[in-house]
Write a structure and sequence with these properties.
Oligomer: heterodimer
Shape of chain A: globular
Strand content of chain B: 15-25%
Helix content of chain B: 25-40%
Structural class of chain B: alpha+beta
Strand order of the largest sheet of chain A: 6-5-4-3-2-1-15-14
Number of helices of chain B: 20
Largest sheet of chain B: 6 strands, mixed
Number of strands of chain A: 15
Helix content of chain A: 25-40%
Distance between the termini of chain B: 66 Å
Radius of gyration of chain B: 25 Å
Structural class of chain A: alpha/beta
Chain lengths: 489, 659
């Protein structure tokens, strides 16, 4: 863009909707006082009741005057799409959406995507099976009987119960009410009911500019990385005989066994050895059957592999987030909305060669100029890369918003969000301009003694008078349903 | 003829020398078979189930069992076991049994006594322990690229999985990989089990080295045990061309042993790397800053593994220096063509011998470690002290090799000003003790002699366990046990408190120690040690550990006060327990206290001047570690699923620390 700009975007009003732990953002692009473009990014929360979500959507509709130029859906996780399911009626009638943007991995017409999604669907199903087996009351009874007499018995039972609960939460992220084949309900609502042949799918490395209403704005698509091309390659680490592909290929053996466990008649493709080596069905090994050594039995231990499995699935979906960087000319400031991209995705952003496409920037350069960062994955450790991410956000005016709310969150997530290191770094870099959806119950220290809100207040106190003034004008918490921050460009 | 038949010494069992997965990289296809010589057991049931190990091949993922192998079957005996085969589960059972037994024997030889598994805790507070005779091994327990030792079940669970090989030309995609077929994985997990029996408190992370130590130690045993098989090395050494002095082959080999299954190799990554351009493997330069900065347990553990490995290489090089001079005519460079087979044999034999020595040094050191709060520096001191006890003539400078290797990595034991053999050795100044104290120790010594006489000729491990328990607790022949005797003699003894660092006075409650009629403390692992050195040096010792804990409370990052820890109550806010302990080693012949290796709760220097003060430094360090470092060391899985550090609840000794 070499011509001078006549009416460039001068500020962006960001509204972070406070439904719960989950993203729902409205961005209003303003050229001076004129609103030229409206965008919404995701609509989800962890677990709120539909009846409680709908008022937020009503407010949102009013907020954007019943129309958005673009609706972005970053990835298929419950905490980003539940709102579409809850507010299906509200979104399909009396609401105009010009275009919908998603990552390339959501394009169901692509053959590769389809076959991958089928396999992924099987994994979702398997995860669910693991959950139901772990939650089976017979499991608890057996464990109690077997471990009777062990010290810490109660703690062991409680820990197993908690494991199952957290696992169930992970499974739910991907599954709505047991329906795992195909999309999560919320996503399905977007694709079938809300969309109107107006979905665009984006690959990393794409740059959009000259969009009407977005004068002076360049949008860089950073992710999702084109993952499965990489999987087909021989991409093991140096010297490894097997690609320990932590990202995708879960051992099919595990899934097979999970599925078979549900049925009564496992077929023998399931066996790792020929049937000849197996003892007869009824026959048991004497040491295993000794009642006084029942505490050494391992009937359920194998199911706990599902923990790591669930995390991998979670990361994979997170890494499929559509990650966008908005660059504003002439100031050069950047706004970053990475969805829930995890480290693997962040890493791939740096491999993109923008210069080849005619843009004289690098990803690091873009990060240097970020003045607003929507924190990825609710302040978890993996969500924000450090040396190749946050450390590169060196702009003095950096501000951040994080969608974390202990009132509506999975229990297992509380121990990983907020990550103390990231909070510390963020507070330092933003000088206190870190806005969290709900500060209640969050602590700054590991001991749980210093409330996070106190720490944030301390940082804000230390700002210069000028900075304090600017922040006061930019940030407001007056609305019941959203937090507002105005990014001045 | 009525001469009694003697049982054989060994049972030969065929196995894999290398993880079959590994044979892709190292091209060991032709030499992968090895014959393990396992101690003969008369009573070996199908399973195999013997005295120490019971292999139980139940597969919970399909709820079926695989037929157990009977190693005493005639044809099996004649053939040195069943034929190695990935597709025969009975071979897997055999392999797991063989490697486990070899690992156990290495420990028993080095330690000079029989191995006992950690007893099962049946009630809180370590009061009720029941004897566990056999370690259970489940060769096909999980469908996962993982294996772990479960302290709760006193069992090792091995996983199997289908893998996507990096090079499809060498292995069929989708083929099964069994962790129970890898010598290194088996030895690694069995070591966790054995160490659990020797030092059960090494599961409690009180400083950055503790968790790292368990992993590093298990890896050291697996690695060096692997090297003790000369055939394993011959093939590789034969392929060496060119400059023999470089001798990087062993390091490269060591690293490859661990590489087969992704993260499993992480401990050995510190050993070195292959230069991308020249394709040459180079050992990594040790960086002393790593020991200060690297805190994640696996990575930290690899520092220790690298240190021990460097010591091994130094020792090996010294041993073969003359061979190389002869072979190269002094130039260090070989003539063209293949290495002479005699040279290969000699080099392999020297490497195997060096590995055996290093392994023994590391194993023996375990007895000279404190019972809690282990650090790498403590381990170095233990190695030096243990070796000095048994090897009077260190003509190959083994001890120096260790000291150098640790020094280069910045691993310094606490409170030692210079790193020398003398300063590193533990020593009790027996002559400097007061007469009273010496007298009390002599009485204890008599008591211990009595223990020795009861236990020396006992071969049943269960009996050894029972006798030891009785001696500690005191129901034996209506006498007070060691536990009570120690208190009776040393209550209020400043000298004893100084030696052990424990609270042994009437005022124990004010120090945060619980107890009604006496300060609460535990005696661990009372055992008889009997070793013979290479030059006939004899070591006869009785060893036991003492541990004690105090409750301390912190607020605003400052120590506030002590509290009495109770097992059925949660600690107060900001409260946590700090453990102290001491390993006491008595020389049986002179019945003198030879070593007191302690992690003190009370400040030793102050006790010199008859002042009892809590060891604030240690407590502060523990607090700092707990609040700032430990939470960062938790794996992602542990974080989300709230798997803490109580080894009773979690499978901490998982092979792969995923995510």
């Amino acid at each position: 863009m070499t011509d001078s700009l006549s009416n460039p975007i001068t500020k962006v009003i960001v509204h972070m909707y406070k439904m719960g732990t989950g993203d729902c953002f409205v961005l209003k692009f303003m050229a001076k006082e004129q609103e030229t473009f409206k965008m919404m990014i995701d609509c989800g929360t962890w677990n709120r009741k539909f009846v409680d979500i709908r008022p937020f959507i009503s407010t949102l509709k009013k907020d954007v005057s019943k129309h958005v130029d673009v609706m972005v859906v970053t990835h298929e996780h419950k905490d980003h799409v539940l709102g579409f399911q809850a507010g299906k009626k509200q979104f399909t009638s009396g609401f105009n959406i010009d275009r919908i943007w998603m990552g390339w991995s959501e394009n169901d017409t692509d053959e590769k995507v389809k076959s991958w999604k089928d396999k992924h669907g099987e994994k979702k199903a398997a995860l669910n099976l693991a959950v139901s087996q772990l939650k089976d009351p017979a499991h608890k009874r057996r464990t109690e009987r077997q471990l009777d007499g062990s010290s810490h018995l109660n703690e062991i039972i409680e820990q197993r119960r908690y494991f199952a609960e957290v696992l169930a939460d992970f499974a739910e992220l991907h599954v709505s009410g047991g329906e795992y084949k195909g999309s999560l309900q919320g996503m399905a609502v977007v694709k079938k009911d809300i969309a109107n042949n107006n979905i665009s799918y984006f690959r990393p490395g794409t740059v959009m500019e000259n969009i009407e209403g977005l004068e002076g704005v360049r949008i860089y698509v950073l992710g999702p990385p084109e993952l499965w091309e990489r999987i087909r390659q021989e991409s093991g680490e140096e010297g490894e005989a097997y690609k320990h592909n932590r990202e995708l290929e879960e051992s099919d053996l595990f899934l097979q066994a999970l599925e078979a466990n549900g049925t009564s008649q496992p077929d023998n493709t399931l066996y790792p050895f020929e049937e000849f080596y197996l003892m007869d069905k009824g026959e048991k090994l004497k040491p295993y059957e000794r009642p006084e050594e029942s505490w050494r039995r391992i009937d359920y231990d194998w199911l706990y592999s599902s923990g790591a499995f669930a995390l991998r699935m979670n990361s994979l979906t997170n890494n499929l987030s559509l990650a966008l960087a908005f660059e504003f000319l002439p100031s050069g400031k950047v706004i970053l909305f990475p969805g829930d991209a995890e480290f693997g995705s962040w890493k791939s952003w740096h491999d993109i060669n923008w210069k080849d496409k005619g843009y004289d920037v690098s990803t690091e350069d873009l990060l240097n100029r970020v003045v607003f960062y929507k924190v990825a994955h609710h302040l978890s450790h993996n969500g924000t890369a450090r040396s190749i991410g946050l450390d590169m956000m060196t702009h003095d005016g950096l501000a951040a918003m994080a969608t974390l709310d202990y009132d509506d969150i999975s229990n297992g997530w509380k121990s990983t969000m907020p990550n103390r290191q990231i909070i510390r770094d963020l507070l330092e870099k933003t000088k206190g301009r870190t806005m969290i959806l709900n500060e209640t119950g969050l602590h700054y220290d590991f001991e749980g003694q210093i409330p996070l809100s106190d720490e944030i207040a301390t940082y804000r106190e230390k700002m210069s008078d000028d900075e304090k003034e600017k922040f006061k004008n930019a940030y407001n918490n007056k609305s019941e349903h959203y937090l507002e921050y105005v990014v001045t460009l | 003829m009525n001469r009694k038949k003697e049982s054989p010494i060994y049972r030969k069992l065929r196995g894999y020398a290398f993880d079959p997965a590994l044979s892709l990289i190292i091209d060991t296809v032709d030499i992968n078979d090895i014959v393990y010589k396992v101690s003969w057991e008369d009573k070996l049931d199908p399973g195999p189930c013997g005295e120490y190990i019971e292999v139980v091949d139940y597969d919970p993922t399909i709820k079926r069992s695989y037929t157990p192998v009977d190693l005493n079957e005639t044809y099996v005996l004649a053939n040195e076991g069943v034929s190695p085969s990935e597709s025969n589960p009975q071979f897997h059972q055999q392999m797991v049994y063989a490697v486990a037994m070899i690992t156990i024997r290495n420990f028993e030889k080095a330690l000079g006594r029989k191995i006992l598994w950690a007893p099962r805790q049946t009630r809180e507070d370590w009061k009720y322990e029941s004897y566990v005779g056999r370690l259970r091994i489940y060769p096909h327990a999980l469908r996962d690229a993982n294996a772990y030792y479960s302290p709760l079940k006193k069992a090792i669970l091995f996983g199997y999985f289908s893998a996507s090989p990096a090079d499809k030309t060498q292995l069929m995609p989708g083929s099964l990989v069994f962790t129970c077929l890898s010598h290194d994985i088996i030895a690694h997990e069995v070591t966790h089990a054995i160490l659990d029996g020797l030092h059960r408190f090494y599961n409690q992370p009180s400083n950055p080295d503790v968790l790292a130590f368990h992993e590093a130690f298990a890896d050291i045993v697996a690695l060096f045990q692997h090297f003790t098989f000369p055939d394993v090395l011959k093939h590789q050494i034969a392929k060496t061309k060119g400059n023999l002095e470089k001798q990087n082959l062993l390091g490269q080999l060591a690293q490859q042993f661990g590489a087969a299954i992704g993260q499993y190799g992480s401990l050995r990554d510190a050993l070195g790397e292959t230069d991308q351009e020249t394709n040459e493997w180079k050992p990594s330069k040790p960086n002393p800053l790593d020991y200060e900065n690297v805190l994640e347990p696996h990575k930290r553990g690899s520092i220790l593994v690298a240190a021990v490995f460097e010591a091994f290489l130094t020792i090996y090089r010294q041993r073969v220096a003359d061979l190389l001079r002869i072979a190269t005519g002094g130039s260090g460079v070989l003539p063209e063509g293949e290495l002479h087979p005699d040279l290969v044999n000699r080099l392999a034999a020297e490497a195997a011998k060096s590995a055996q020595h290093v392994l023994s040094m590391c194993l023996r050191a375990i007895d000279y470690c404190p019972p809690v709060d282990i650090t790498f520096g403590d381990f170095l001191r233990a190695i030096i002290t243990a070796d000095a006890d048994i090897v009077s003539d260190d003509s190959h400078h083994y001890r120096l090799a260790f000291i150098e290797a640790f020094r280069r990595r910045g691993i310094y034991p606490k409170g030692i000003r210079t790193l020398s053999e003398e300063s590193l050795q533990y020593r009790v100044d027996w002559e400097g003790l007061e007469e009273d104290t010496k007298g009390f120790f002599n009485i204890i010594g008599d008591f211990l002699r009595d223990y020795r006489s009861k236990v020396t000729y006992v071969t049943s491990r269960k009996e050894i366990f029972d006798i030891s328990q009785k001696f500690i607790k005191g129901t034996y022949a209506n006498r007070s046990g060691l536990h009570e005797s120690l208190w009776m003699k040393f209550d209020n003894s400043y000298q004893f408190e100084k030696l052990t660092g424990l609270v042994f006075n009437g005022d124990w409650k004010s120090f945060g120690v619980k107890g009604e009629d006496k300060a609460s403390y535990q005696i661990l692992n009372l055992r008889l040690v009997s070793r013979v050195g290479p030059n006939g040096e004899q070591v006869n010792q009785i060893v036991f550990g003492l541990v004690q804990r105090v409750g301390v409370r912190f607020e605003n990052d400052q120590f506030q006060e002590c509290y009495i820890p109770k097992s059925d109550q949660d600690p107060p806010i900001g409260g946590f327990e700090v453990w102290g302990g001491c390993t006491l080693i008595f020389d049986l012949d002179t019945v003198q206290l030879k070593y007191a290796i302690s992690k003190p709760l009370l400040v030793p220097d102050k006790l010199e001047r008859y002042v009892r003060e809590l060891n604030q430094d240690r407590i502060d360090e523990h607090y700092q570690y707990q609040t700032e470092v430990l939470p960062l060391s938790v794996s992602q899985v542990s974080q989300y699923f709230a798997l803490g550090f109580n080894s009773n609840l979690t499978e901490m000794f998982s092979l792969l620390h995923k995510g």
